[in-house]
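Quick one:
INPUT:
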């Protein structure tokens, strides 16, 4: 049985959602119960209780994050340490459910308090238990599947700015991805965004394989720090114990970093860069490194949104994120930019789990689109355009319509066929600079007779 410390009445300081208490150990009591990351209960003079978490220990002074906030607390409050870290409910019953950042259900469904629980915030898996990423997660988004494949166990962010449709993109990936379980973590969402994600999953019929952990903008900021840990702890259990291919969606990790900054300032920590604490990299890495392909079990793949204030990729949050993750999807102007996006693991699946022409068609399409951008720049500066420039301009317009628009949806093989058709509409076979064998096999002899995918311009 876990030993519990007695109650302490000496509240030293209340700052924002933080509480500092002086811990005095009586005879026969165990000082070690008050550990970093463990839970406590703050009991006010009126009998109300609020859960809290130990976030700092300095000799006999313990700092706590109070989940419900410190409004109404007095220095006469008492603190009781529980001797265990935060836990998330884990059982088959959590599929199709929505939880708060505190881990409590928020959807009005059946009580799950008696279901098994798992501790959150544990260390990443032992490298000996990892296997090399080798399986593709199909999303039916051409700019991902064709040009920057999402690979199981990958950790990859969507770099964007406020106002871009990154939530719509994330929801589509969660709906269309060939994953067994989708774990969604919302950080600081306004109600409209939360309702959008829940409605999208329900309307698409995938809510039964989805678990949602949501911290709304009106909820305590300290709960925002727990959402990634809750989501990843549950994802890890699904992958290890049930062999599931789990996709974790997080939005927005900049809100998570801002919450870290807010708590750090309240604790009088010295900021490092633009107000963020010096451990920002470690805090982000601790979460992202949970992505893993487990030997003999399932996998955890992390796809997160990172908004860039002022579209500044050198901002501390995207800058640190880029050092941790394995590439990024760059969302710009409502489209996934092929030049800013990168998947460092795509070579593990392209041509191995996909068609033989995948690598060649990917490189050729991006190369020609780069030429189209140059031709557009020449056109805007009133330079004379060659016939080949005119072909590039036509190709660039078709490329944006058929592939870059995030609303376009089609399977990988259909997207590869459309790539060949688009090339045939704009260029002669000899202008492609591709392997002759691939051109002979895949280049349409009569592109006009090809059938355009549903919803795409003919």
């Amino acid at each position: 049985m876990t030993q519990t410390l007695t109650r302490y009445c000496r509240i030293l300081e209340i700052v924002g959602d933080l509480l500092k208490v002086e811990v005095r150990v009586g005879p026969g009591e165990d000082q070690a119960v008050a550990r970093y990351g463990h839970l406590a209960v703050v009991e006010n003079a009126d009998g109300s209780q609020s859960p809290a978490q130990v976030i700092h220990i300095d000799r006999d002074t313990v700092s706590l994050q109070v989940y419900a906030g410190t409004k109404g607390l007095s220095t006469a409050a008492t603190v009781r340490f529980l001797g265990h870290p935060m836990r998330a409910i884990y059982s088959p019953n959590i599929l199709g459910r929505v939880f708060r950042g505190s881990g409590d259900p928020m959807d009005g469904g059946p009580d799950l308090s008696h279901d098994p629980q798992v501790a959150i915030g544990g260390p990443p898996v032992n490298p000996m238990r990892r296997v090399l990423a080798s399986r593709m997660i199909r999303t039916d988004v051409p700019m991902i599947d064709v040009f920057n494949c999402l690979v199981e166990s990958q950790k990859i962010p969507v770099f964007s700015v406020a106002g871009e449709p990154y939530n719509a993109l994330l929801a589509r990936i969660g709906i269309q991805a060939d994953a067994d379980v989708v774990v969604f973590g919302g950080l600081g969402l306004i109600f409209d965004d939360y309702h959008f994600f829940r409605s999208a999953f329900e309307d698409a019929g995938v809510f039964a394989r989805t678990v949602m952990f949501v911290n709304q903008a009106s909820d305590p900021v300290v709960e925002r720090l727990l959402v990634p840990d809750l989501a990843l702890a549950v994802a890890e259990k699904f992958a290890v114990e049930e062999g599931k291919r789990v996709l974790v969606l997080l939005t927005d990790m900049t809100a998570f970093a801002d919450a870290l900054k807010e708590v750090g300032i309240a604790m009088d920590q010295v900021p490092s860069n633009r107000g963020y604490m010096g451990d920002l990299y470690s805090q982000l890495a601790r979460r992202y490194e949970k992505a893993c392909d487990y030997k003999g079990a399932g996998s955890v793949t992390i796809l997160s949104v990172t908004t860039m204030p002022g579209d500044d990729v050198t901002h501390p949050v995207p800058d640190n994120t880029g050092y941790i993750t394995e590439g990024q999807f760059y969302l710009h102007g409502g489209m996934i930019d092929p030049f800013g996006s990168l998947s460092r693991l795509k070579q593990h699946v392209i041509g191995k789990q996909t068609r033989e022409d995948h690598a060649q068609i990917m490189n050729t399409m991006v190369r020609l689109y780069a030429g189209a951008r140059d031709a557009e720049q020449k056109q805007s500066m009133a330079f004379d355009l060659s016939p080949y420039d005119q072909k590039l301009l036509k190709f660039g317009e078709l490329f944006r319509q058929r592939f870059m628009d995030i609303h376009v949806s089609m399977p990988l093989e259909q997207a590869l066929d459309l790539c060949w058709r688009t090339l045939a509409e704009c260029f002669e076979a000899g202008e492609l600079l591709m392997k002759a064998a691939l051109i002979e096999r895949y280049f349409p002899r009569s592109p006009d007779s090809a059938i355009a995918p549903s919803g795409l311009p003919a």
